[in-house]
Each structure stands twice: as C-alpha cells, then as structure tokens.
Design goal:
7 strands, five-stranded antiparallel beta sheet, two-stranded antiparallel ribbon, alpha+beta, 218 residues
C-alpha cells in the first residue's frame, strides 16, 4: 500500500543515528531518506502528516543536540506519498537541492563484507521517553532551537523541575558548577546581574544543560 512519509535531510552522522534509532521507519531511495511513521498512515490529508512530521523532527533534533554538537540538525524536506508501485508524490515543497544533500551515509561493513546497520544508541529510547512525558518533551523541543541564554535557561528550569529540584541538580553537577551556570545565564538575561568569577561560555552551558537532560531522559 502507499505510505505517507516525510523527506529527511541531514549530515551522514545524523542520518546514521536516525537509522539506528528508528530502524525500518526510515526508508532509503536513490540516496534520499524518508520517515514513514506507522501512526501517519491513517491520515486523511497531507497537512496532518506535515504537522506531525515537523513535530517529530523537532524532538529528534533536540535529542541529537543532547548527543553532541557533531550531530547537525535534520531538515524537513516535505511530505511525500511513497507509492506501492514505485515513485513518489510530493506535497508542498520538497526541493531537489535538499534531496541531494543526504547521499553519503556512514556505513559499517561486517566480516562478510556486507553492510551492517548502525548500532541503536540511546536515541530511540530517548524518543519514546520524551513522547511519554509532556514536560520532558517540551524541554527537548525547546533545546532543539535554544540559541540564546533566555531559551537555554528555560530548558534548565524545566530540567531542574523534572529532576526533582535544585538539590538533585547539585548532586549531578555540584553546587559550584550549578552556580556558574545560573549566574552566567542571569547576567545575560538581566543587565544588572554580575558575572561569576568563572563564567561559562554559551557552548559550555549548552553541554551542562544537555547533561541534565540526559539524566532526566534516563
């Protein structure tokens, strides 16, 4: 039968992690990659798949960012109907430029000389965990696009609450590191707040918040 899907574009490492996490949900065709989630197959209109697909990619990008900066964001390439008889029907925008950029995926060769699937890693379990907790899902979604101190601090506040409060955060980070994080963030959020003696860079703060999210996801 025909399948609703979205085209997914990304760098090789991110695509490999996606394949390891979602397995057969990921389709490959002529160097392009598609997600065909079973829950989309009853959709009556492509716009429903569009909304669900964009939401899923946002969660995935948040989780990829938690894994590390070497994982570039996945990009949305449009809604596609994969035809049972072959071929694809595109809806809205799925450009040729996007389709070309996903052709080189990391491949692991087994002892018999055949490609073996990438290891599953934590992404699949994290995705299921986030989907089962609305606050955790919100934190992951915000983290996907947290490019300033205001949004990063919102993620920190959600993680602090999800982990059980400040004492739990201090057990994970140590109190001095937590103070450096929060005081640096408050300086950038409020002009009258001084920097701590050893402020964090945004990149360092990003990794600290990611550490909290990993603990919450676990």
């Amino acid at each position: 039968m025909d399948e609703w899907a979205i085209q997914v574009v990304g760098e090789p490492r991110s695509i490999s992690r996606l394949r390891g996490a979602l397995g057969e949900v990921v389709r490959e065709d002529d160097g392009m990659y598609f997600l065909a989630d079973p829950s989309w197959q009853e959709a009556q209109h492509w716009e429903d798949v569009d909304a669900a697909g964009r939401a899923l990619l946002t969660r995935l990008n948040g989780l990829l960012r938690i894994l590390g900066s070497e994982n570039d964001p996945l990009r949305f390439g449009g809604v596609v109907l994969l035809k049972e008889a072959g071929g694809r029907d595109y809806y809205e925008k799925a450009t040729g430029t996007m389709g070309m950029s996903g052709s080189a995926v990391e491949e692991h060769i087994g002892p018999e000389g055949e490609p073996v699937p990438p290891p599953p890693g934590p992404l699949g379990g994290w995705l299921r965990r986030a989907e089962g907790d609305s606050k955790l899902e919100e934190a992951v979604r915000l983290f996907a696009t947290a490019n300033d101190w205001f949004d990063l601090y919102k993620v920190y506040e959600l993680a602090r609450a999800g982990l059980g409060g400040q004492s739990s955060v201090d057990e994970l980070l140590t109190r001095p590191l937590r103070n450096r994080l929060t005081q640096t963030a408050q300086h950038h959020r409020h002009a009258d707040k001084p920097l701590p003696k050893a402020p964090l860079t945004f990149e360092e703060a990003d990794r600290v918040v990611a550490q909290l999210l990993v603990a919450w996801l676990a």
